[in-house]
């Protein structure tokens, strides 16, 4: 991404954060805000210290680019002694010399320094965008964990309500003398198991909520209400995702790292010969029985006889080769992860749809019929227990499938380089409202 695009993203991101904070500030303390994935990501980006560190790195590289290519400072020398006073018998001190020295970077070193600094700045900007992807991914995982914990708690409370209904039916049958001791115990166990499930779900929800609030930096905000879990849409075609890998920030950073390494090689080669130094001087001496001024100039040329920087050049060459190999490995790994994540997400979506049709739907119908049959005395307690377990186990597994699918959507965004916030990026379908 170019420096201009990077700055545009920064401006848009800061505007979005400002708007978000203004909206948050006007929410009453007693209100319970509904949190979406987009809102979560924006808040996470605003609170993430990792991004501030990356921004500092970019600013530091801007400073290095500003410094790169600067000529070395000249040297000015002033000399005074009693030489002239001794020669003409006047005694005292006198100004005897002025000299001006300037190193001449004629080896092309400064140009290579600028190229290296430019590449390092581009690398830092790409790594900043990659850090945005990392923060978005972590925020999505935290958000989807909160969603699942909330849905599990709602399901557990529904299970407890069903158990309470069974207890009421049991009380009526007990009064009618149609409830054996064994059946009474089984109803009590159903109710206590449901109560234990609620307690477990409440604990898991509290933990997920605490993790979410800390990561979002909102520990004092009322408990957020996440949107309900739904099935994500199918992703983009695999070819489109693979074609977009070329602009992945991590690959861009690796390519700029190669450019910086090559500039370092050229800089090491240019540094084999030290810069010549121009010296212009004006001196006063005792010549022809009187004080006279002498002006001259000279150039000093270091001779690279013993140190030709061969070890440094070799090290920089290996560094460039290492950067190229790392890019190839990164391309291979991202390509593989995109393919695997795309395939896994497709399987999860298909499995969830099939599960909803073939298991969840029939389980709900069977549970409804069994509850009515038990209330009418047509179904035994063992049939009710079996239908109850099948119904709530099916719902639990379906919720897990939904969360797994959303986590895979987040993984696919990360490995394909698709951001929810950065401009000029195509976000894969399936983003939750």
Fold and architecture overview:
It is a single chain. The protein is an alpha+beta fold and 433 residues long. It has helices at 3-25, 37-47, 49-67, 83-88, 109-175, 181-216, 238-243, 249-270, 310-375, 381-416, and strands at 34-35, 75-81, 94-103, 225-226, 277-287, 290-300. The protein contains 10 helices and 6 strands. It folds into 2 domains: 3-70 and 108-270 and 317-416, Outer membrane efflux proteins (OEP) (Up-down Bundle); 72-104 and 273-307. Residues 16-31 and 424-433 have low confidence and may be disordered. β5 and β6 (290-300) form a beta hairpin. The longest helix has 67 residues, at 109-175. The strands form 2 sheets. A 4-stranded antiparallel β-sheet has the order 2-3-5-6. A two-stranded parallel sheet has the order 1-4. 67% of the residues lie in helices and 10% in strands. The chain is elongated, with a radius of gyration of 37 Å.
